[in-house]
Amino acid sequence: MLSLLFGPALQAVEERAGDWVWRLGSQKTEERRVLVVDIDEKSLAEIGPWPWPRSTQARLIEQIAQLGAREQILDVVFTDPSDDDASLLAAVAEHRPVLAQVFALGASGPGTGLPQLSEQAAPRVGQPSGALDWASCPAPFSEALGHLSNFPALAALGDMPQGRTGHISPRIADDGVVRHQPAIICWQGKSYPSLAIASLMRATSETSLLLQRGGWWDAPWTLGSAGQALPALPLDERGNMRVAWRLHPDSFVSIPAADVLAGRVPTDIMTGAWVLVGASAFGMNDTIATPYSGASAGLLAHAQILSALVDGHTPYTPRAALPLQAVAAALGALLLWLLVRLAGQGGSAARDAQALTPSPMLRMPVYLLPLAALAFALALVVAHALALWLADVWVGWLLPALFVLLAGVFAGTIEHARSRSERDRLYQHLASYLPAPVAAALALQPPSSAIRASTRQVSVLLADIRNFSAYCEARPPEEAAAVLHAFFSAASRIVQAHGGVIESFQGDAVLAVWNGADDVPLPSATDEQHAQIHSRQAVAAALDLLTESLKLLPDPAPAGLEPLSLGLGLETGPAMVGSFGLASRRTHTVMGRTITIASRLVDLTVDLAHPILVGEGMAAQLGGQFSLGARAGGSGTQETQHLQSMGTFLLEGLRVPHHIYAVPLDTLVAEHPPAPGDDQADQPTAHGTA
């Protein structure tokens, strides 16, 4: 799908990345097999402006031959005849250099970079020469629209048995860079080889070429010789050779043509070498863009192609490139799937039971999925570069890399959403076992074995169901659990409605705290004012909870059992609130003298025959009085009542006597009048020892 939608753009990006590979790994070792005789600015200044007289060019060919060159390859086209052609024709006839010609190609496909030409607009100068002995031009090769060829007399020498002519027409990409050259170009039913192929045929005396379809691991087409004198040349589906920009431009030995003409070069420098004669001077109209530079001499492309042909290192794209890319994409997808499985360890609902036990397997952060996809994409780039340098294979990496990157982002997004959902569900569970502010704070903190606690001024309510142990012993466990569940549910609802937090459920008792978390205090109230506020809230919650217990606890009690009743102890004072224990097993609790007093008050509710007892700390904050009708969400007139002093008691475990107060029994009766026909003794007074 990516290839269909963005094929040309992706191919351009991949080609430019290939340019980076060529530049990064370019070899700067001196290339002495292929030498360049350059018609440069120095030569033009010394010899004269171009075109030079044909006699000067003939003398250049003769000088190169005398210096021992194995082959001469001319990257120059002589389109028009001249008065002094005789010397040039004689030099060509004697030394048989490979001649050049140019064909005009239309925009025959993506990446040509050429404007669409018509046959009428295309030039037709000179006479093409050097055609192969093929009966027709095969399908993969492009048909030319025009040509710039040598004048007829010179072209005739290129058609002779010992003569060769090759085209110098490049494939120019949309960004202007030359990365391919047609191996063969068709013109009027005949096939004309490139300059490099013609040079190989001249050097090996090969007269015929053989075009074959490549295997799955080979290039789409291979061009060789019937006598096996030439190595098989890999071609793409359009019959193009990929230029191997393996050598840095500085690797080629470049000799100014003026120095050759003047005899200012070492006598052995060209011995046995292939000499490429071309121009780099400004204004010679032979400038191309390469991976190394935006403006280089065109002869560099032919030098690179020749060097690669001699070494047998012409890069190619195998026919199995797309399947190989699909395999790479599948491997990337498999890697991401394994990482998703690894990231999900201990996170899904199916593994909740496993999560209860310590495990060395840590949950992998979901951001590692896109990072793993990026690492895999970079690995594909490295693999592509190594295959290109070590095996001359251009497989392509961008499509599988994009697929894996998109898959990694998608998988990371899905895994993040799943992780977020599981985290929210875990937080909801955590908040049901801990106070919600505590659960919220823990969700943002890493595990720690340090004490995380602070001393705060809190109000505490401890409510305990009396006679519940005997009830559990006599009744089925399911029935006892239902009573306890109903009581805990009611206590949670009432405490939260009055601004408190259920700190813990302790057997058949409930511990509720006001001002136990950092986010509880009202910013508009002072500490003293806030202590008064949460003291009143705690008393109101105790009254509501006592009222609700009359509806929840079984009445009358089962035969032979004491009735279930509720005892409540309330106190306000300092307490230590926080988390304790090792990081592997911690607990959150409220501890201190205030909690101890509330617990002892619950024990005294039986002895003092009062269901709600209040410590002196809370009584001081209340001013010895409280308001009736202060229900959560309630309305109506509030009536102020006074606490009843029960005297001073030395509570168990404490060294200082404590003054105890109670909510008057008549207040409780007024709050909960008996229904018609009920016995007065069955009302709140019965929750004491009466």
Walkthrough of the structure:
The protein is an alpha/beta fold and 690 residues long. The protein has three domains: 21-311, no CATH class; 321-433; 453-687, 2-Layer Sandwich (Alpha-Beta Plaits), CATH 3.30.70. It contains 19 helices and 28 strands. Helix 11 runs antiparallel to helix 12 and helix 12 packs antiparallel against helix 13. The longest helix has 36 residues, at 398-433. Residues 108-114, 346-362, 519-524 and 674-690 have low confidence and may be disordered.
Tell me the total number of β-strands. 28
Radius of gyration: 48 Å
The quaternary organization reads as single chain
Distance from N terminus to C terminus (CA atoms, Å) equals 85 Å
Helix fraction, binned, reads 25-40%
Counted up, domains total 3
Please tell me the overall pLDDT: 85
Instruction: Please describe the biggest sheet, giving its number of strands, its sense, and whether it closes into a barrel.
Output: 8 strands, mixed
Which spans have pLDDT < 50 for at least 5 consecutive residues? 108-114, 346-362, 519-524, 674-690
> Looking at the structure, what is the overall shape?
rod-shaped
